[in-house]
Write a structure and sequence with these properties.
This protein is α+β, with helices and mostly antiparallel strands. Helices cover 51% and strands 15% of the residues. It folds into three domains: 115 residues, Acyl-CoA dehydrogenase/oxidase, N-terminal domain (Butyryl-Coa Dehydrogenase, subunit A, domain 1), CATH 1.10.540; 117 residues, Butyryl-CoA Dehydrogenase, subunit A, domain 2, CATH 2.40.110.10; 153 residues, Butyryl-CoA Dehydrogenase, subunit A, domain 3. It is built from 13 helices and nine strands. Strand 6 and strand 7 form a beta hairpin. It is globular, with a radius of gyration of 21 Å. The model has no long low-confidence stretch (mean pLDDT 91). Belongs to the acyl-CoA dehydrogenase family. Keywords: FAD, Flavoprotein, Oxidoreductase. InterPro entries: Acyl-CoA_Oxase/DH_mid-dom_sf, AcylCo_DH-like_C, AcylCo_DH/oxidase_C, AcylCoA_DH/ox_N, AcylCoA_DH/ox_N_sf, AcylCoA_DH/oxidase_NM_dom_sf.
Amino acid sequence: MDARFTAEQDEIRRTLRELLGKRCGPEELRAAVDTPAGHDPALWTALAEQLGLPGLALPETYGGVGCSVTELALACEETGRALAPSPLLTTAVLTAPLLLALGTGAQRSGLLTRIASGGLTAALAVPGPALATALALTGHDRSGEWAGGGRAGGVQARWADGGWRLYGQVEQVLDGHSAQLLLVAAHAGGFARSRVLLFLVRGDAAGLTRVRQTALDATRPQGRVQLRDVEGELLGRDDGDVLPALARLGATAAACLAAEAVGAADRVLERTVGYVGQREQFGRPVGSFQAVKHRLADVYVRVRAARSAAYYAAWAAAREGHGEQAGGLALAQALEALAAAAAEGIQLHGGIGFTWEHEVHLYFKRAAGDELLFGPVHRLRAHAADAAHVFEEAGR
């Protein structure tokens, strides 16, 4: 593994940081999360037109840039620093790889080209509490129970009048209330022969109802998706198995999420160091006290270690068979680093750290919210250990 970044990778990071610094400051962030969509469409357009961000990891055949997971993770690190509310995670990280892996030729050419241009946003409609299981981050579920188990709950699909019709409800779908395209996980075949398939649903489809839900982390908007006799287009073929594809996606998603968390942790640490260097107590800067130095030094070590793990996970995710354990472990380490950095930031900012007017608390909510969606941390590590047969080796 060559740990050095190329000139192109450094340029992606620099350009994106400059753009987000101008277009996604604290005031712009608050204004964006308060909109019905929960993000700024103008910023998303700028990210697409100036940087090609939605298609960064898509092949050039479909209008993408043709980069790897590493470049996408570096972009996520920068969006994580700013807590930029955008459809990047749901569109480019969670949905586009599934379209590329499972879609027919017509589906790939018709949808990925629009995604790469920024003209189409997409969301993966998997029940929020089950997202980590669906992506095989906290365990393998080869039966698809996370999607409703074929019983009441989740989404059911049946073939009628020459097409697929979807029924059901999905809670806590990231960007589910605003995405122009939904990739819905649904059970087909009834209870006895139930299997999970993925269906494409237009955001304006008849019978589709979407409502934005209140979320702990407002920078990650979530929606409730209700389907009542909604027309759906099967992704790929009905004899395919989508569960392995979702599990493979988990390695990429974990690497990008870890990079996001590292970027957020680095930014809140940077803000805290700057603040304690200015705030005075007993006639001297708070940052000059040895206890404060030790606390921030501990956070610095956590962030640096998490960054190394995230970069390795991104490298491994681009290589078949390398990324499964690395992604989950990197995500666990990054979430812990972000939680520690945000907690110290709130403490060391004193009376203003926990107030709504200050943005430090947003980083703490990002750490807590991501652990609820993609963790918890101890299960991420336990699953990685099981996949690597650590305990089996120790028992011999």
